[in-house]
Write a structure and sequence with these properties.
The structure holds 2 protein chains of 2 kinds. By secondary structure, chain A is an all-alpha fold. Chain A contains 13 helices and no strands. In chain A, helix 2 (45-52) packs across helix 13 (255-280), helix 3 (56-87) runs antiparallel to helix 10 and helix 8 (148-173) packs across helix 10. Chain B is mostly helical. The two termini of chain B are 14 Å apart. The chains are: A mainly alpha, B mainly alpha.
Chain lengths: 286, 299
């Protein structure tokens, strides 16, 4: 009995924070989404209104396209890079590689977007030659509408992949050396070990990465926001769904519409990530 | 070392596999490293030198000093204020995050109580909620209690860090044998003592890890302070960067004038905005890897 009371003590502060900044705001968003500006019940009109907004469809398409490119790149490349780095036997080389991959993680948020603004502006960019090779000689050409999803995917990958590589590397280290050794004695190649032993062991972490990245990706905001600012609105300020929600809240003073968009985003993220949770066995304990 | 390497290559992949692996690593080293190297060099150049000079030629210390001076005199030293704000928000949130999430992750992983599974599932669910989806509702919530514009409107929401609880939960449930705790209980430890004397000393890596992620996340957070803080005086450096960007004629031609910011100065601002996170990472890297490998297996 006393043991249980101690457990409650352990989780008390975290629970309080969960209620204050997780549950209450979410409930409040639900309340806002089904009421009108005067506080009266509005049913689903807010949802039909925002979805019917001519800006909604394009914004949803932009985000979906970005997510597709980014998640595939992340899952495939992070797993491959972690396994390859883990196979490097020279300790200093292995740790240097991880550092190099991780380093851009320090430049998240506005900082990495600023850096990529430089890189994408052919006049100042160190890869200006490469950009011109593809016929892109001005900043406005580089940030043409068709290029934006891959550009945002590259920025997000550049910033976030290293952290996941370090995490996957740690998970690989947790695989018992005896298991790998036994497989090797039985004649398994590095490829077979990766496929049959390392990949299944990483599954939990890969699905975890998928969920976290999906959640982060649907939030796409700072990249298009800064790009919009830096391009004098060549990139529109309602490019992503979150930007649209922001426009609703702070330009149109329509918190009900903003809450409706937020809830829709939430629903999609939850539905998609349920697949990851079930397949990845995230709740398995030992 | 040699035998290990030979063993490794005795499989089918052989040298061609190693060549492909080497190529992949080289490509990605360039991909991750070149932008950082270029950015550091850009801070040492003049506005003209940045455009006409060779991209990877170092600039001059004099130009770095000029850029430095231009940056820190921007709006009467606004940059210094922004950095101070960032530090206050990140450290404040870090302390509260640790106090809240380490015991919680431990309790969810290794103790039994009625709402354990509920809390675990809730943690995952809230973790999945895009931060930004909650920012506007939190804004209204805090608005009603008059906290908007105060440091707490940023620090408190940042302190709610389910990711930290989940990391702690994973660590304790996979790396600490339950028998160890059972033994401590048999030896007469109270539940509190089991946590403080047995679990916590073994948890140093995860404390460092959660602290690290919390600090990085808070320092780099853009949207929350962007919404919560109406006044430039309260900006963290991440939001301050947008003010600098707005004053850079290369990206915003209408901003040419007395307060305009040149490209290398903007590059310097970018570097300075990430410096603390960079230092924390370099300093904590060993710890970080130790945290990830702590499970008894050798590196």
């Amino acid at each position: 009995m006393r043991a249980v009371r101690t457990s409650y003590l352990f989780v008390a502060l975290y629970t309080a924070l969960t209620v204050a900044f997780g549950i209450l705001p979410a409930l409040y968003a639900m309340y806002l989404a089904v009421t009108d500006a005067a506080g009266g019940f509005a049913g689903l009109t807010n949802f039909t209104r925002v979805v019917g907004d001519f800006r909604f469809g394009p914004a949803a398409t932009h985000v979906a396209y970005f997510l597709l490119i980014w998640l595939v790149a992340l899952v495939v490349l992070v797993t491959v890079l972690a396994i390859v780095v883990h196979a490097v036997r020279l300790r200093w080389l292995s740790s240097t590689l991880r550092l190099v991959f991780y380093l851009p993680g320090a430049l998240a948020g506005a900082s990495s977007v600023l850096l990529w603004l430089f890189l994408l502006d052919p006049t100042a960019s160190p890869i200006g030659g490469l950009l011109r090779l593809f016929g892109l000689s001005s900043f406005v050409q580089v940030i043409g509408p068709a290029h934006l999803p891959p550009i945002f995917a590259v920025i997000a990958f550049w910033t976030g992949a290293g952290g996941w590589i370090v995490i996957m590397y740690g998970a690989l280290n947790n695989i018992s050396a005896e298991v790998v050794e036994a497989a090797r004695i039985d004649g398994a190649s590095a490829m077979q070990i990766a496929w049959r032993i390392q990949l299944p062991m990483l599954r939990k972490w890969i699905s975890y990465m998928g969920i976290m990245s999906l959640a982060a990706g649907t939030q796409l905001f700072v990249e298009p926001q800064l790009l919009s600012q830096a391009s004098n609105a060549v990139v529109p300020n309602d490019y992503s769904l979150n930007q649209l929600a922001y426009q609703y809240a702070f330009q149109q003073n329509d918190f009900n519409g903003a809450a409706a968009i937020s809830l829709l985003l939430l629903l999609v993220a939850l539905a998609l990530s349920a697949v990851f949770v079930l397949r990845g066995g995230l709740f398995e304990r030992d | 070392m040699t035998t290990a390497a030979t063993d490794r290559r005795s499989g089918v992949s052989g040298w061609s596999g190693r060549a492909i692996a080497g190529l992949v690593l080289t490509i990605f080293v360039f991909f991750f490293l070149i932008p950082v190297v270029w950015l550091l060099l850009a801070t040492t150049k003049s506005a003209r030198g940045l455009i006409v000079g060779a991209p990877f030629a170092p600039g001059r210390p004099g130009d770095l000093a000029t850029n430095w001076h231009q940056l820190f005199s921007f709006q009467d030293g606004a940059v210094t204020t922004w950095i101070g704000n960032s530090a206050m928000y990140a450290v404040g949130a870090l302390v509260i995050t640790l106090v809240a999430s380490i015991p919680a992750g431990y309790a969810v992983a290794l103790t039994e109580f009625r709402f354990r599974r509920t809390l675990l599932v809730l943690t995952l669910i809230v973790m999945l909620i895009p931060n930004t989806a909650l920012v506007l509702p939190i804004f209204l919530e805090l608005n009603s209690v008059g906290l908007i514009g105060s440091p707490l409107s940023v620090i408190l929401p940042l302190s709610f860090f389910p990711f930290g609880v989940y990391l702690t939960y994973i660590y304790f449930s996979t790396s600490i044998p339950r028998d160890l705790l059972a033994a401590a209980r048999i030896d007469g430890c109270s539940e509190l003592q089991v946590f403080t004397r047995v679990a916590l000393p073994l948890a140093a890596p995860i404390v460092a890890l959660v602290a690290f992620f919390s600090f990085v996340q808070s320092w780099n957070n853009f949207y929350l302070p962007f919404v919560m803080l109406p006044s430039s005086d309260g900006y963290p450096i991440q939001v301050g960067l947008t003010s600098l960007l707005a004053s850079t004629p290369a990206f915003n031609p209408s901003s040419a004038g007395g307060q305009s910011v040149q490209l290398p100065t903007l590059a310097l601002a970018t570097v300075i905005s990430v410096l603390p996170v960079l230092i924390v990472f370099l300093f904590a890297q060993r710890f970080l890897v130790a945290g990830m490998t702590a499970g008894g297996t050798k590196e």
